[in-house]
Design goal:
By secondary structure, this protein is of the alpha/beta class. It folds into two domains: 91 residues, Rossmann fold (3-Layer(aba) Sandwich), CATH 3.40.50; 93 residues, Winged helix-like DNA-binding domain superfamily/Winged helix DNA-binding domain (Arc Repressor Mutant, subunit A). The chain is built from six helices and ten strands.
């Protein structure tokens, strides 16, 4: 699983404490000395991020902003509060993912369009998300490695079987044969 990232803005003491214990944290930390530096950065437009600002400063950032009021708090409590907020962000982010005219709810495993819903397996959702992620064609070897973790020496028809069944489920429910396509270069979502 990819580690979530928290951004600490103008809170050097908290950053230094978390930096000391970073190998024990379930998230990455990035420090910004000033809110303007953060806003100018490429991180400012990322979804699913948590920003921690100095409680003594008005950061003018409303979304995903966590301030620790009622200090002092133990470091254990601070890490607990951060993890709770990250869980909320992850849950909300996964609850609605749009792909073409479809919506995936990763938490409930439903794939929906125009009032129709189809229950998918976690692996089927992983396939759809992976194919949609880069908008490129993915070979069988690429899918074996990145979805199933297989090495290229493994002889298997797992990828073809899963995609065949997934396409059939989608076509049976939504009458859509064109969501997952393939050609000689691999599988893709157009």
């Amino acid at each position: 699983m990819i580690k979530q990232i928290i951004f600490i803005i103008n809170y050097p003491s908290l950053y230094e404490i978390l930096k000391e214990i970073k190998e024990n944290l379930s998230f990455e930390i990035i420090n910004y000395e000033h809110v303007d530096d953060f806003i100018k950065s490429s991180h400012f437009n990322l979804k699913n991020l948590l920003i921690i600002g100095n409680p003594d400063e008005d950061l003018q950032l409303k979304k995903n902003l966590l301030k620790f009021n009622g200090l002092p708090l133990s470091i254990k409590k601070i890490v607990e509060l951060i993890n709770i907020e990250l869980i909320k962000l992850r849950f909300n982010h996964q609850s609605k993912i749009n792909i073409n005219q479809y919506e995936i709810n990763f938490n409930s495993k439903f794939f929906s369009r125009n009032g129709l819903s189809l229950k998918l397996t976690e692996k089927e959702i992983e396939i759809i998300l992976y194919l949609n992620e880069t908008k490129t064609k993915h070979s069988i070897l690429d899918l074996q490695k990145n979805i199933w973790g297989y090495s290229s020496e493994v002889e298997t028809h797992t990828v073809e079987t899963h995609i065949y069944r997934l396409r059939k489920k989608i076509n049976d429910k939504f009458k859509d044969e064109k969501l997952i396509l393939s050609d000689k270069e691999g599988y893709f979502i157009c």
